[in-house]
Amino acid sequence: MTGDHLAIEVSCLTKRYGDVTAVHDLSFTVQPGVVTGFLGPNGAGKTTTMRMMTGLVSPTSGTATIGGLPYGQLARPSRTVGAVFDANAFHPGHTARDHLRVYAAMGGYPDSRVTTLLDLLGLAEAAHRRTRGFSTGMRQRLNLATALLGDPRVLLLDEPGNGLDPEGVSWLRGFLRQFADEGRTVLISSHALGEIQQLVDDVVVIRRGELVAAGPCSRLAGPPAVLVTSPDADALAAVLTADPANGGTAPHVEAVRPDRLRVRGLDAPSIADLAAAHHCRVHELAVETPSLEELFLHLTTDKAVS
Amino acid sequence: MNHLIRAEFRRLLATRMWGGLLLAAAVLGGGMFGAMALAGPENFDPPMPGLDTEAGLRAILGILGYTAFVPAAAGALAVTSEYRHRTAAVTFLFAPRRGRVLAAKLATYAVVGLAYGLVLAGTAAVALFAVAAARDVPLGLPASTVLALLGRIAVAMVVYLLLGAGMGALIHHQVAALCVVIGYLYVGEPVLMMIPGVNTLYPILPGGATAALTDFTYVADAISTELGSGTVNLLPPAAGALLLTAYAVAASAIALLLPLRRDVT
């Protein structure tokens, strides 16, 4: 399996519970080699979709495959996919080591793998403590250790940021980045956007069980804007919109304040050069990265759905 | 499959339940049964025939058989703890073929049930022979027959543990499963026995089949007397054993087949 690049393919997935449609005709692809954020308000159907990917919940119709196969047909599923769905999925009387040894046996992995993961996730000292006394952060790390037992090619995390301290979030960020850089596939769901803002490359946004948008963050958010603070804002605005160097489309300039402009369609060096050429004073020039939160709100509010 | 069975053994042996279960077997076999033998059934209230009679010996062995609710409860507890502690989802992620997971559990619990039964029967045998020697009472049955009856009780414990596991896999909810298992054995079946017509079914219910194993006719006789109906006859021991096994197989089969398509949320 090592070296395999496995995409997750969701195709026309629908799940109904009685009269309630939790997921409706959902199709998207999660690419290997990048970290994909699975976003949507609470109750949008993220958890149901992730459980359908792994066969825990059977779809009413449609399919979800991992590397082309439904989860149930994977030869050794825990070698292919690691998943964390529950914040607290341990027998309270088991120690961290006991818990991992149960699943190591189930997946056919040696006890040395258990020791490796306890060390990797900073649980070595807690290895012989019963899980009932574990903090939320320790539980999260033990969940992750369980998912990683089979050194999987695909990682699915449902709301992993809940209960992690800043240090934990930073560690997770580094870990997932490295994981994706090795050509593996990461899907991480969240409703707390601040947490995964710097973490994800691609996003899949759903709302009320339906797809709203999918693709690289940068493409969905559009080009970054540049904020220009200038006492000559009006003159500068006229210069920028008349820019002949821009290939065809005029830059979009918006006056945020009397002395500040938000410019889209021109990069900072071009703006600075134009300002210098036309003797407009520039006091501040800042690139404004679109926040995931704005994108998310933009995509999931009713007016955005067209 | 071997991976799954090894995992289930690890899961069980890492909890304190395992030690507690064997302790319960020793307490019930060596302790409770020993104390009953020491007091002597002739001193019970109401008095029963003594240890030196076949009826008396069969009676206290029958009472020992009634402790089968302990392994039944243990089986239900072990299976439902996966749902209660939400590890079922993790387990099915590692082993999506749910039938195999349950089969591995049943295989594991059969071994555990056998260990329980052996400790129970073993300590009971030691206690009985020691009491008989100490009180200088000749037992109403040959030692080999007593051992055979205790062996049947040990087997009954395996069957009840599997019955409990099967019910647990069906019901999922821990408290509900315990209520159903213990409630049926202690309330449901005796209540059924009070309904004329239904009580003639006693020999083919789990309790009746267990009583047949040791030819323990106390309950059957009580039903007959109380209702003034014809004598309720137990099945022969071998048929009782077969019937109990059929119950365990049925519970396991339902457990294997039914919950497999259920969504794990």
Describe the structure in brief:
The complex is a heterodimer of chains A (306) and B (265). By secondary structure, chain A is an alpha/beta fold. Chain A contains eleven helices and 13 strands.
Task: Describe the model.
Chain A has 306 residues and is of the alpha/beta class. Chain A has 2 domains: 31-56 and 72-215, 3-Layer(aba) Sandwich (Rossmann fold); 225-289. Helices cover 33% and strands 26% of the residues of chain A. Chain A is built from 11 helices and 13 strands. Chain A has a 6-stranded mixed beta sheet with strand order 5-6-7-3-8-9, with helices on both faces. In chain A, strands 11-12-10-13 form a 4-stranded antiparallel beta sheet, with helices on one face. In chain A, strands 2-1-4 form a 3-stranded antiparallel beta sheet, covered by helices on one side. Chain B has one domain. Chain B has 11 helices and no strands. In chain B, α2 runs parallel beside α6 and α7 (143-171) runs parallel beside α11. The longest helix of chain B is centred in the middle third of the chain and has 38 residues, at 98-135. The mean pLDDT of chain B is 86. The A-B interface holds A 51, 54-58, 71-72, 74, 77-78, 81, 83, 85-86, 88-95, 98, 101-103, 105-108, 146 and B 3-4, 6-7, 10-11, 14-17, 81, 85-87, 89-97, 261, 263-265.
Largest sheet properties of chain B: none
Secondary structure category of chain A: alpha/beta
SSE order of chain B, as H and E? HHHHHHHHHHH
Structural class from helices and strands of chain B? mainly alpha
Poorly predicted segments of chain B: none
What is the domain tally of chain B?
A: 1
Shape of chain A: elongated
Q: Kindly, what is the distance between the CA atoms of the first and last residues of chain B, rounded to a whole number of angstroms?
A: 25 Å
Radius of gyration of chain A: 24 Å
Number of alpha- plus pi-helical segments of chain B: 11
In CATH terms, the superfamily of the largest domain in chain A is: P-loop containing nucleotide triphosphate hydrolases
Strand content of chain B: under 5%
The CATH architecture designation of the largest domain in chain A is 3-Layer(aba) Sandwich
- What is the H/E order of chain A? EEEHEHEHHHEHEHEEHEHEEHEH
Shape of chain B: globular
Classify the fold: give the CATH topology of the largest domain in chain A: Rossmann fold
Gyration radius of chain B, in Å: 19 Å
- Unreliable segments of chain A (pLDDT under 50, ≥5 consecutive)? none
The assembly state of the depicted protein chains is heterodimer
Alpha-carbon distance between the two ends of chain A: 42 Å
